[in-house]
Specification:
The chain has 449 residues and is α+β, with helices and mostly antiparallel strands. It is 59% helix and 16% strand. Helix 5 runs antiparallel to helix 6 and helix 7 (315-333) packs parallel to helix 8. Residues 258-441 form the Histidine kinase domain.
Length: 449
């Protein structure tokens, strides 16, 4: 596979810039959505509160209006003759009530005495009937303020109002012409109250929503600047992490070269010397030299394998797919069945490829050395959310709730490294259920390196 061209680098850079812009737009979009949700959360109870306050204000007005009518228009007409059931007195009150009903939205009026007897009603059949006076009735007669409710009328004494739907029911206390304490009850159509509710609501909600929206819009430019600043620092951190990864690879190459050019060469020379002594030395010492040469050759093979693992592949030249295939070959030769699920076309930035390769190398090494696994599946996926690599084995597994075993120190280091890159490394394992290591990186990681 040929080395990526400058055009490929420019393409990667453009993809990374597009990914960064997408992340900023996503962050701003989330900010706006959360702001809208917060607006609804704040506006909904405020609207209910305004509606309730408007209703209370309208009911208070109804109490005030009823109190004025009771004190000035009807109360003085409640005479002893009316209390005694005189028809002429009843007709006089009817005329006053008729004028009042023509000027207002009142539907029904009743006057009660302290014993719960209806002494006047525009429905004459109710006059003289007695009903149990509730506690609030006694409180009104004792001087308590008037009350008003907006509800469906279902009480026994509401025979003529129950079919009218919701009504405003008002109770106030006043005095008859002779000073007798009475209870005045009036029923109003709910239309004016609902109308006042809507007027207050419609007059207060728009400026309230506009104020909250203006606050939200005022916070938008700082939010965009903050998102860009966070994105910039994320890019700087990614570049620093990429430099650290490159420095680590350089150090691994240096160690591998030193082992190959010095230690392994010296040990190989020592092996030839031992072989010569084995062939030409004293006969009784030849078995000793043979065992020493065999041990030395084993050590040289182990060192050669170590240098192969230490020396990272040229990901730019080979690509991640070929590098992972070569990474799996030594494990396959030692009897570990490694199945690779890698797309043919998986363009990744250098930083992403290097970090995913490290995760795969560490996870495969742990599966081969510590888990007792016989099969491993390595899967690489790429999508708009970023690249993801997953390594699953059928080994012994371990209790994930405990600290990672000592043999998994490399995974702990990688977990921190991936997190520093803005990604996430997840380890799922259970005794007897194998282990799965999954790493996901952000799109555009270290693209500017």
């Amino acid at each position: 596979m040929s080395r990526p061209s400058e055009t490929d680098d420019i393409s990667f850079s453009r993809d990374a810039e597009a990914a960064e812009r997408l992340q900023i737009r996503t962050a701003v979009g989330k900010f706006l959505i959360m702001g809208f949700i917060a607006l609804l959360i704040v506006a909904t109870p405020v609207a209910f509160w305004i509606r309730s306050a408007a209703e209370r204000h309208a009911l208070d007005n109804a109490i005030l209006h009823t109190q004025m009518v009771a004190d000035l228009a009807i109360g003085p007409l409640v005479s002893k003759a009316l209390l005694a059931g005189d028809s002429a007195a009843l007709a006089g009150v009817d005329r006053a009530v008729k004028r009042w009903r023509e000027d207002t939205s009142v539907l029904r009026i009743k006057v009660w005495d302290a014993e719960g007897r209806v002494v006047y009603s525009d429905v004459h059949s109710l006059v003289g009937q007695r009903f149990d006076l509730p506690e609030w009735g006694h409180a009104l007669l004792a001087g308590a303020p008037g009350t008003a409710t907006l509800e469906q009328q279902q009480e026994l004494e509401n025979e003529y109002e129950s079919a009218s739907g919701e009504l405003v029911e008002v109770y106030v206390s006043s005095v008859a012409a002779d000073g007798t304490r009475l209870i005045f009850e009036a029923y109003y159509d709910d239309g004016p109250v609902r109308g006042e509710q809507q007027d207050v609501l419609y007059s207060m909600i728009p400026p309230f929503l506009l104020a909250l929206s203006a606050l939200q819009l005022a916070q938008l430019p700082p939010a965009i600047r903050l998102a860009r600043r966070i994105q910039y620092h994320q890019a700087v951190r990614n570049r620093l992490l990429q430099r650290a990864l490159e420095a680590s690879d350089l150090e691994r190459r240096k160690i591998a070269r030193d082992l190959h050019d010095e230690v392994i060469q010296d040990l190989s020379g020592l092996g030839f010397a031992l072989e010569s002594e084995e062939l030409h030395g004293p006969v009784d010492q030849r078995p000793v030299f043979r065992r020493a040469r065999s041990m030395l050759q084993g050590s040289v093979r182990a060192l050669r394998a170590m240098t192969s693992e230490l020396y990272p592949p040229d990901l730019d030249q080979l690509g991640l797919k070929t590098s992972l295939e070569r990474l799996a070959e030594p494990h396959q030769e030692r009897g570990l069945a490694v199945r690779l699920v890698i797309p043919e076309d998986a363009p990744l930035e250098r930083g992403s490829s290097a970090l995913l390769y490290r995760v795969a190398r560490e996870a495969l090494s742990n599966s081969a050395k510590h888990s007792g696994a016989t099969a491993v599946v390595l899967t690489l996926r790429t999508d708009h959310q970023g690249p993801e690599i997953s390594i699953s084995d059928n080994g012994a597994g371990f209790d994930r709730t405990q600290l990672l075993p000592g043999g998994h120190l490399g995974l702990r280091i990688l977990e921190d490294t991936v997190r520093e890159a803005g990604g996430a490394l997840e380890i799922r394992s259970a005794p007897g259920a194998g282990t799965t290591v999954t790493a996901r990186l952000l799109p555009g990681f270290a693209a500017s390196s």
